[in-house]
């Protein structure tokens, strides 16, 4: 368990500022939800953390040290929205998971580790030879989680991992995230546009709007009495919830 910290991070694309001086901490062993509409900058912040978006300012630290973004054994592992595009269709799911295991293990040990990881995400190890096209969307997302865990990350970044799934499958994946966090003590940045999803998995929530964090705090506190108009708008979009300023209904 390790702490991930963003300090005044800025990301620009040409004249457009996608992330504007964001500071945010993911404490060791906690799930922090980052919520906002499409275009708010939340996925860009995640991509900056794993070296996929260039920073124009600020720092990203792991236990106080700059996060390395090169080399095979990266301490941050990202799970993307579309599990099919993140898995090589030419490889079996076992091969995809094995590819992410740090070097040094024997072939037998790697095979055993693949089986353990598939079981961890509630997939039958006997299906290790299956191709991604043979699995459902929910099963592919479980493989993506297993692959991320295979790298033995210090922090997992989950970017809209349920938004491409059927509603009936989303709950099972969210339950799996909660189970993995509880059993493994994961530190996780969980990104979503849906406050109801974040409420279910995160102990702390940060709300992002136009590239900035406009509100953050313990999830129960922010959702019960949001301070910012944008947070209230997001909350009003969740079925069964209506809020006025400072008071839940």
Please characterize this protein's 3D structure:
Helix content is 35%, strand content 26%. It is of the alpha/beta class. It folds into two domains: 4-40 and 54-192, 3-Layer(aba) Sandwich (Rossmann fold), CATH 3.40.50.300; 220-249, no CATH class. The strands form three sheets. It has a six-stranded mixed β-sheet with strand order 6-7-8-3-9-10, with helices on both faces. Strands 2-1-4-5 form a four-stranded antiparallel β-sheet, with helices on one face. Strands 11-12 form a two-stranded antiparallel sheet. A hairpin with a 2-residue loop joins strand 11 (243-244) and strand 12 (247-248). Helix 3 crosses helix 4 and helix 3 (93-99) packs parallel to helix 5. The chain is globular. The chain starts with a strand and ends with a strand. Residues 243-249 have low confidence and may be disordered.
Give me a quick take on this structure.
The protein has nine helices and twelve strands. It is of the alpha/beta class and 249 residues long.
Structural class: alpha/beta
Distance between the termini: 37 Å
The whole-number mean of residue pLDDT values reads 90
Number of strands: 12
Main sheet specs: 6 strands, mixed
Proportion of residues in β-strands: 25-35%
CATH class of the largest domain: Alpha Beta
Number of helices: 9
CATH homologous superfamily of the largest domain, by name?
P-loop containing nucleotide triphosphate hydrolases
Q: How much helix, percentage-wise, in residues?
A: 25-40%
SSE string, helices as H and strands as E: EEEHEEEHHHHEHEHEEHHEE
CATH architecture of the largest domain: 3-Layer(aba) Sandwich
Uncertain segments of ≥5 residues (pLDDT<50)? 243-249
Gyration radius, to the nearest Å? Answer: 18 Å
Shape from CA axes?
Answer: globular
Total individual domains: 2
- The CATH topology of the largest domain is Rossmann fold
Strand neighbour order, sheet with most strands: 6-7-8-3-9-10
